[in-house]
Each structure stands twice: as structure tokens, then as C-alpha cells.
Amino acid sequence: MTVETKGKNQTTFRADQVGSLLRSDVIKTARLQSADGEIIFDQLRKIEDKEIARIVEKQKEIGLQAVTDGEFRRAWWHFDFLENLVGVEGFWSGNGIQFHQKQTKSRAIKVTSKLDFGNHPMLQDYQYLHGVAGDHTAKFTIPSPSMLHFRGEVDGSVYPDEEEFFADLAATYKKAIQAFYDAGCRYLQLDDTSWAYLCSEEQKEQLRAKGLNPDYLIKMYLQTLNKAVADRPEDLKITMHICRGNFRSTWISSGGYEPIAEQLFGHLNIDGFFLEYDNDRSGGFEPLRFVTRPDLQIVLGLVTSKFGELENKDVIKKRIEEASQFVPLDQLCLSPQCGFASTEEGNLLTEEQQWAKLQHVVDISKEVWK
């Protein structure tokens, strides 16, 4: 049986995934050789192509209907995309992003001129994925526009008026969304950690200490997102993954979705949300009461990507049943809570365990949505 159901002009995947996959040893070696000048870009590209084709076939074999490239051409889930926007530059900051017990390597981005979307290299990345996806859906992931403001530095001489910055950011993403659509994309996911920070009282205090107003961020991020996705083609599915941090199986923020649920579920004009629900830090399902749109898809991230042990199938089924008290079962789906490698280092599990996790998601989905 299939684990997909089709709605108006779109497909709902009962078994889904967030996107990133553990980089294979072949990829890791090739990227190091490329960085050291031992192989040229075209050689690296061919190696990436072969490995992406392999993992796409593995996803098909498992039973996933939406396949990704595992983000195999990226070092980061967000910086690689953002620093290739017109007006944005990447740089070595000297400091990484602090997770609990771990810190990422140094990288940061800054806005140095007016924003725009041009001949972005990830359009070619998508086109390759589209070609090997065959009759499966090629799903592509990019960071949410909020992340450029949340993680980037903005030159005040370029954008003395912050509202102009947000307007240009929305217009840039609107062009990006259309460009991916024109390249053949019908399933685009926006990845975002800022909303998880806005769920956490600890993180909100840190934002205030930096001179940022959480209520203002909620307003501007929501407004920017809605402008970016406005007037998109009817057959383009756009979802958002709200992440609490995922580097080497560690995390950043805690807190349930209550502080942002009414705004996000009630006012963000996208087709679905990937929500992390793999531990107590995620809170309960009560915030899902704000899901009032009958066409809004909620993907429950009940299977962790941080560790290899498989969850008890009956426990997962019971939690889906609990969530269905707030959102009809027909609007629910299942996935891991996050990708397996938000950065190229990857989480602390093996590739075999990763595939077993995804197979677990597919198997449970077949039993729940018969």
C-alpha cells in the first residue's frame, strides 16, 4: 500500500522526512580533498552526483515518496544557501554557534549590499535531484527568510531602515520560490530555528539582552514570510520545519509551542509544519488546538534523529492518537523530528541506524493511515 494521499493539487506524505542525511565517507573524503586542492570542482561534483543518486534510490527502496539529496552538497543547513544570495557574504567569524555541550565551527554571514536572488547554485542542485527522483517527488530544503535576520549581520549603511531590509528580504525569497518552481520544484521546505527560540523563555531573555524585542520579531518574521509565499503557484507545496537545534545530537532551545502557536498556525499562509515532538523539551500537543484550517498539514516529529535506538512502535501510535484529539488524523503525518545532519559533521548514529529510523517511520505510517 502507499503512504501518500492526494488533496487538492497537492500530495500529503503520511511518512515524510525533514531532509538532511548523514554524509557518507565518500562525500566527506571528497570534500576534504576539494578543500585541500587535491581534486577540482567538477570532480567533486561527479562524486556528489553518484552519492546523491545512491541515497535517492535508498529512500525509494524504504518507501518514502518524497526524496531529498540529503543536503550532500552543503556544509550547513542554512549558511550555504544564504551566503549565495545577492548582497550576502559568508565569513569566518572566529566563533561557532553554541549548543548544549558543543559548539559548531566558525562561520557567519553578513548583508553588505541590497538583497536579491540571482543565479543561485542551488537551482542546479535541485535540477539534479529532480532528474534522479523519477516518479517520486523531489523535495528541496532551504532556510527560512527569518534566518538571514536571525543569524546574519546587516550593514546599517546599506539598510538604515530595517523595514526596508525586511521588504527586500521578502521580495528576494519570493523570487527564489518562483525560481525553484520554474526549475520543477513542487515541494519546498523552509527550515527555521528562530521560532523555537521564541518558544523559550531562556532564549527570549538572551534576545532581549542583545536589544531584540521578541514580539517585534514575531510580527516581522510572520509578515516577511507571508509576503514571500504570497501568490505562489497553486501546485507548489511549502512547509516549514521548526527546529530546536541539531548539531552532533545536541540542542539549543526548550519549550512547547504555546507562545507562538496561535500566530504560526493561524496566520502563516503555508501548507504544513514539521514539529519536533521527540522529547519532553517539546511540550505537549495542546498548542495544536490553534490549528483551525482544514487544509493545514501537521507532521509530527516523534522519531528522534539524534540517536540510533528505535522507538517503541506502540508508543508512537499512542502519541499520534493523542495528537489527533486536537487535529484530525487526516491532517497528521509522521517524520523524524529533524534531519540527521544539519551540518556536514552529522549526528551520533550510523548510516544503517539512519535508514532503520526512516523505515520505522514508513512502517508505522502504513499501520496508522490504512
Automatic annotation (TrEMBL):
Species assigned in the record: Robertmurraya beringensis
Gene Ontology BP annotations: methylation
Matches recorded under SUPFAM superfamilies: UROD/MetE-like
Record keywords: Methyltransferase, Transferase
Residue ranges of domain Cobalamin-independent methionine synthase MetE C-terminal/archaeal in the record: 18-364
Database matches in InterPro entries: Met_Synth_C/arc (IPR002629), UROD/MetE-like_sf (IPR038071)
Name of this protein: 5-methyltetrahydropteroyltriglutamate--homocysteine S-methyltransferase
Parts forming coiled coils: none
Lineage, opening ranks: Bacteria, Bacillati, Bacillota, Bacilli, Bacillales
GO molecular function, one term: 5-methyltetrahydropteroyltriglutamate-homocysteine S-methyltransferase activity
EC number: 2.1.1.14
